[in-house]
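Field: sequence (string)
Field: structure_tokens (string)

Example rows 1 and 2, in order.
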Amino acid sequence: MKLFIKNMVCSRCKMVVKSELEKLGLQLLSVDLGEVETIEPVSDIQKKQIAARLSAFGFELIDDKKSRTIERIKTLVIELVHQKDSYLSSTLSEYLSSHLLQDYNTLSNLFSEVEDLTIEKYFILQKIERVKELLMYDELSLSEIAFKLNYSSVAYLSNQFKKITGFTPSHYKHLKDKKRKQIEYL
């Protein structure tokens, strides 16, 4: 049986969810971002226990189809930006449509209606958070970061970064208090 879980955004989230579900005695087939598959069906009582256990860690069980679709879009964008460095062999719309097997216009309208921002804006916000992260590590130059995240130029990255954060990347890099938004709050 598949369970859909909101706010799973990284490998540590997967470890926490796996651990907590195993503590509840569930046997798991797989644990992926936003999704867990159990060997046996889960009763309504077990779902309530799971929801209570996971809410302590900021996770939430998702039951309705719209919420599952939104969460799956977010998961795909997060994976794309934070694990695949925004590398796309096609457009973002084709990527999402092919993974979700739905028309992009339908996905886009649903996402905008529920999240009050477009998928493209969410993608850009995720990319900027990744840029902030890479700037904090101080291991790559700005041109290497632009290349890594598939920006067409350093100037384009810098302009987008300033538009979103209000700072140039070099100014941001020198700030002492580099406050980053957690992925699940974007």
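Row 2 begins here:
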Amino acid sequence: MEVFSSMDQYDHEQVVFCYDEASGLKSIIAIHDTSLGPALGGCRMWPYRSEEEALWDVLRLSRGMTYKNAAMGLNLGGGKAVILGDPRRDKSEILLRAFGRFVHTLGGRYITAEDVGTTVQDMAVVRYETPYVAGLLEKSGDPSPATAFGVWRGIKACARWVWGSESLRGRTVAVQGVGKVGSALARHLRDEGAHLVITDVDSERAQGVGRELGAEVVEPEAIYDVPCDIFSPCALGAVVNDDTLKRFRCKVIAGAANNQLAEPRHGHALEELGILYAPDFVINGGGVTNVADEFEEGGYNRDRAFARIATIYDKLWRIFTVAREEKIPTFLAADRVAEERIATIRRLHRIYLPGR
């Protein structure tokens, strides 16, 4: 992969390759856009098949954070970090602290937090080396409940748009992935009277959540074929692809996973199939909104944070309206809304402020 041409494709500002022999750290930090403020985005640890795959992932994820933060009305830019390795085998204190030192070299241009393969406890270790860490236990903590709450609010907006009622009672929802976010979302759905069909690559976890919530459990590959009202991807991305498009039996796709569309053309295909797609970087914006509240005057306030997360309902409604009025797919409408805010703030920055 050509690094600079890859950066140019999505207009990234900076990519930092981090290597420490003593700890075994191999990490990439990508800063996509800081027009709205310092780049905030989690640190993902994953056993990537290659360095090229890791670079591609961090570039896509960091761009998604720019759009997510913009769409959620946050004064934060977009960034992301990945650590190459198996979190179950390769994670150590020295590795996390080495990562923290590299974060610190950026002087606050990038603020890290937990993500797939890392925890709030890991971020406490990173914090030993840099103050540029968010989502610590003593502050906003685990963002999963906030993300799940936002996705639930977004699903209700989708239901109202498609069926004229936001009630999910009696609706069948297929939840793909019942980790921290997926299981919390499933509880919201169960409490509202939805019928749940769930799956997870960890079969024991799926069975446990199934027993707790009275949900039907299916094998991971079978979830795409489940007749349902709403398909909710809450695991990894690219689940809307050439293969799955032929198998979906739903009217709505709305879930917590990042980068759900394998390619932009798959968003156009969903439109042609009459399936409403809730753009991922909007519906899953609850976690970053929760973390961002730490930067408000007076520090983190849960009630204030969750009140802002609840507006995901309204943000999706606006996006669906733009898509209908401009006759474009919802994923393009979401991009347009985010890009308009970024462009507006960029124009504001032409005004010089002393000391800024």
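free_text_note (row 2): The domain at 144-285+311-340 is CATH 3.40.50.720 (Rossmann fold).
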